[in-house]
Design brief:
This protein has 282 residues and is mainly alpha-helical. It has 2 domains: 41 residues; 230 residues, MetI-like (MetI-like fold), CATH 1.10.3720.10. The chain has 12 helices and no strands. Helix 3 packs antiparallel against helix 4, helix 5 packs across helix 6 and helix 9 packs antiparallel against helix 12. The longest helix is centred in the first third of the chain and has 38 residues.
């Protein structure tokens, strides 16, 4: 008869093996995706791919310089709009959001987090594109910022709530007003987590396509004007992947690899910021 200690040991080993297996399956998905992109897109990446704009349909060559610059402009502008609002809302929810208004803000943020991105694109088209009479990069940035704000608000709230109350009490005891305590003590202490949340939010919206179809639309010509339609990597991938030309498909795989690499780099920076703030996880 198996003893109780032996059963516990076997159960512990079984659960350890199960957790390791499930963790491997989770990582395997990323490995397969990235490996497939490397196999199909790496051979198409050269200097011209980053420095040239697309050529007319049916011709070979060209690149996605317009989409790379457009992605930097649209995502960067969305971060300028969304980060201050999202972080500010998260600070309010953590420090002053115990009342009815805080509950309402928290509920709206949770609903927006679960809203399909294409719905946000339609909202951007109704309230920005239609009144102005044309598509624009600014409309796309606003749509992406709307997606970013609730995520940043909830992430910032959780990071700020991790700050010990003893720090707040010490600052208040020294005569700091509450608003200054929140900004100088609490926000600075939670800065690593807040920056990580911002980077994850930027990575989240960098690959969005649906909202941009109704707002930024796309532009095969090189432009830096935020009042005009603008191409991004996600839109370029969508156009090329659904096109009839093999050359477009080749460039779509290469653009997808670049976009995946961009998201991976941002994620690694977020992890580095976390390790710098909290130390390596042992």
């Amino acid at each position: 008869m198996i003893s109780r200690a032996t059963r516990r040991h076997l159960a512990s080993r079984l659960m350890t093996v199960l957790v390791v297996l499930l963790s491997f399956l989770a990582v395997l998905a990323l490995i397969l995706i990235f490996g497939n992109l490397l196999a199909k897109g790496a051979s198409s990446i050269d200097w011209a791919f980053f420095t040239k704009s697309p050529v007319p349909a049916g011709q070979t060559g060209g690149g996605v310089a317009n989409a790379i610059v457009g992605t930097a402009i649209v995502v960067g502008l969305s971060a300028l709009i969304g980060v201050p609002i999202g972080v500010g809302a998260g600070m309010y929810l953590a420090e002053y959001g115990s009342g009815r208004f805080g509950y309402m803000v928290r509920f709206v943020a949770d609903v927006l987090n679960g809203t399909p991105s294409i719905v946000i694109g339609i909202v951007g088209w109704i309230f920005i594109v239609k009144p102005s009479g044309h598509f624009s990069a600014l409309a796309g940035s606003v749509a992406l910022a709307i997606l970013m704000i609730p995520m940043l608000a909830r992430t910032t709230e959780e990071m700020v709530r991790l700050v010990p109350h003893s720090l707040r009490e010490a600052a208040l005891a020294l005569g700091y007003p509450r608003w200054r305590t929140s900004l100088k003590i609490v926000a600075r202490t939670a800065l690593g987590g807040i920056v990580t949340g911002c980077l994850v939010g930027v990575a989240r919206v960098a690959g969005e396509t649906a909202p941009l179809l109704f707002t930024a639309l796309g532009n095969l010509n090189f432009t830096v004007s935020v009042s005009q339609p603008m191409q991004t990597l996600s839109l370029q991938i969508y156009v090329y992947a659904t096109g009839p030309f093999e050359e477009w498909h080749r460039l779509a795989w290469a653009a997808a690899l670049v976009l995946m690499g961009l998201v991976l780099i941002i994620s690694l920076i977020a992890r580095w910021v976390t390790r710098q703030r909290y130390g390596s996880i042992r």
